[in-house]
Amino acid sequence: MNSKSFAIKGDICYSISKTELLTYENRYLICIDGLSVGVFESVPEKYSTLEVFDYSGKLVIPGLIDLHIHAAQFSFRGLGMDNELMEWLNSYAFPEESRFSDIEYAKAAYTQFAEVMKYSATTRACIFASVHAPATEILMDLMEKTGLQTFVGKVNMDRNCPDYIVEDTDKSAADTQDWVASCINRYKNTKPIITPRFIPTCTDRLMQRLRGIQEKYGLPLQSHISESPAEIEFVERLCPNAEFYGDAYDSFKLFGNDVPTIMAHCVYSGEKELARIKQNGVFIAHCPQSNANLASGIAPVRSFLDMDLRCGLGSDVAGCTTESIFRAMSDAIQMSKIRWRLYDNKLKPLKFEEAFYLGTRGGGDFFGKVGSFETGYELDAIIINDEPPKHYGKMTLKDRLERFAHLSIGREPTHKFVSGTQIF
Amino acid sequence: MNSKSFAIKGDICYSISKTELLTYENRYLICIDGLSVGVFESVPEKYSTLEVFDYSGKLVIPGLIDLHIHAAQFSFRGLGMDNELMEWLNSYAFPEESRFSDIEYAKAAYTQFAEVMKYSATTRACIFASVHAPATEILMDLMEKTGLQTFVGKVNMDRNCPDYIVEDTDKSAADTQDWVASCINRYKNTKPIITPRFIPTCTDRLMQRLRGIQEKYGLPLQSHISESPAEIEFVERLCPNAEFYGDAYDSFKLFGNDVPTIMAHCVYSGEKELARIKQNGVFIAHCPQSNANLASGIAPVRSFLDMDLRCGLGSDVAGCTTESIFRAMSDAIQMSKIRWRLYDNKLKPLKFEEAFYLGTRGGGDFFGKVGSFETGYELDAIIINDEPPKHYGKMTLKDRLERFAHLSIGREPTHKFVSGTQIF
């Protein structure tokens, strides 16, 4: 028995499928060597020597998974939220990201980001940095110290963005190669991920170079796809030979298959694109608040679930104002209702169980067996003091969980474990 | 000079029109006898003996106005948010509201509500209680103690709701008469408001009786209108002689003119209904989060502004999960973008200045000269420690205000004044 072996007592909830949420009051979750052994009414005899963390009366749930967040945009959360996408990128996102050429600025900004992430409900995240490799390493140093498990990407872009932030193609590739070589074996919790911003800002030659680096090191990839109508039209003009947006990524062999891939948004992915996403095993990061804030639209998340696509939630800070994946669950439900009402009443709104699945196990799949407490899953857990109103009387555990998800902003977990290691 | 005369020093923001937000760094807001005298670079000589509250570096803004909130639904915020309207009413709202027949339950639940409202950013609110007059008086007692200025309504409903909560017509009217007589002169800050739930749950005879009580005491009125398609069809069947939903209220003389009236929602109000709303001076309570959560739709708030209708924001707890009118501002902008994208690209999304206006001066107009710091306005003010990130550098005051509005959940004002009286 080591420090990654223990029992947690509390009110335990986790997903075993898209629609099935298990809830157990006053039970024991057993963790051995960082992996869940399961949930028991009492501590089994063979585990009787384990330390028991007693969180009686509190919610014990898998850590939340953020498949898409921009660390370099964290400082201006909440600004320009009445702008549309291109206006917002040019007025806020690009100018702010350019500041990360300054190491001191990067340290200050990323320190705040890492601190917020550490104490949030999120245990794993896929993170965009900026184009600057040195600042990206600073971010990785800071994220490593949080104990969260993350993929962090130096962003690549060599066209269609302002002069003050555009990269030279060769330098972008060389910087990426050097950055990967420098960081790939440096950390325990923090790994590099290839991060072309998206097709509009990456030349074919850059994409080919990134594929080379990806192959050499066997790296995963994250990018954006089919977020807004104007962007999609632009990609059609830039890639006349591509059958659809995702086909452009696929033509560079940067769209799933041997490359673990996350694509954010898929608001307007058509049948063919979704079929390719399924065929190639691409993960979708559904980012409902950002899609609303930037006037992009509402992604058909019901279709993603019906088609059994791999899908999780992304906060997409600063398109979204908060890193909270609870808020993303709440927004995913809310936006699915608006979509149903205004746009397509054939796609039923999400149920809470489905939103919770997306924010835990759905996204967790990108990290392996993560996001549930089933036997063999890595034990990421957060402990929540949800304080249901006493006068209301007994609430079911499912109601308590749903309530907290919707009311959680500003209320952090009291304890957090990542892969069996206690963070706080 | 009395205790309602003082100066506040800080970073001051307020609306002077739908589109004009004034911002002043490091200035003095002068309050004499509870009314704003204006904002000055230094304290004018004639006011030199005033006490100065020094909130340097903090935001000083008008208190927020909530034109529509259900106190009796506060306890189950966040539950059933994946239900649609009728399912939610029958599973959550009606069962919970029925519990307010129990005085002890009402005390416990309303105590929590009043406490949250007191420390929120809201200084004035129009509140629905339940059908129970004794519980409504308890709520009024509690709200009076908060120092907030509120209108509180005992709800009326005598048809089309479950047996366990439906009222007998005569008893509903008699209870309302007795309640109004009992409370109308009892409080300084808290006033009764006639509150038929909405046409579907109120017979013609009840509406006529309520008009009688309204006339006798000169009371204002609050209700719901044109929230969801099924409700509107139902009203068409119930009121075959009404030209439109609002015409049904108007037929009872309970739709503006001599009756200060707030109608929540107007998601589907047609041209004729909006014209009548304008003609009669009815206030619209725009409740964007609730309209999304209950799958109602998105109200055309841009049209309300273009038509110069009287309009403010409502939280509509528990259709909305939070009492925060900052969140309502954020949601109003967000939903206006989704509406523009998915439904009607002729109605431009809201700008921040417009959302801020709606949440302060727009709603404040219902209470008189309230919701701004112009000379002669009642001085409702909240003080906010917004803590912009230091590394980011200087933010404009408008940016700080916008940022806080979007990030504010879980962060309360540090100080609050209502009509010149300090609450905390």
Question: Could you tell me the radius of gyration of chain A in angstroms?
Answer: 21 Å
The greatest interface between two protein chains, and residues involved on each side, is: A-B, 53 and 54 residues
Count of strand segments of chain A? 17
> In DSSP terms, counting alpha (H) and pi (I) runs of 4 or more, how many helices of chain A?
13
Beta content of chain A comes to 15-25%
Give the low-pLDDT segments of chain A: none
Q: Based on CA inertia axes, which overall geometry of chain A fits?
A: globular
**CATH class call of the largest domain in chain A:** Alpha Beta
Quaternary state of the chains = homodimer
Q: Largest sheet of chain A, described in full?
A: 7 strands, mixed
> What's the name of the CATH homologous superfamily of the largest domain in chain A?
Metal-dependent hydrolases
What sequence of helices (H) and strands (E) makes up the elements of chain A? EEEEEHHEHEEHEEHEHHEHEHHEHHEHEE
Q: Find the CATH topology of the largest domain in chain A.
A: TIM Barrel
Structure description:
2 copies of one chain form a homodimer. Helix content of chain A is 37%, strand content 22%. With 424 residues, the first copy, chain A, is α/β, with parallel strands linked by helices. In chain A, the strands form 4 sheets. A 7-stranded mixed β-sheet of chain A has the order 3-2-1-4-15-16-17. At the A-B interface, helix 2, helix 9, helix 11 and helix 13 of A face helix 2, helix 9, helix 11 and helix 13 of B.
List the SSEs and their pairings.
Two copies of one chain form a homodimer.
Chain A: E1 6-15, E2 21-32, E3 35-40, E4 52-62, E5 64-70, H1 85-98, H2 103-119, E6 122-128, H3 133-146, E7 149-153, E8 155-156, H4 169-183, E9 190-192, E10 195-196, H5 204-217, E11 221-225, H6 229-238, H7 245-251, E12 261-265, H8 271-280, E13 283-286, H9 288-293, H10 301-306, E14 310-313, H11 325-342, H12 352-364, E15 381-384, H13 397-407, E16 415-418, E17 421-422
Parallel strand pairs in A: 1-4, 5-6, 6-7, 7-9, 8-10, 11-12, 12-13, 13-14
Antiparallel strand pairs in A: 1-2, 2-3, 4-15, 15-16, 16-17
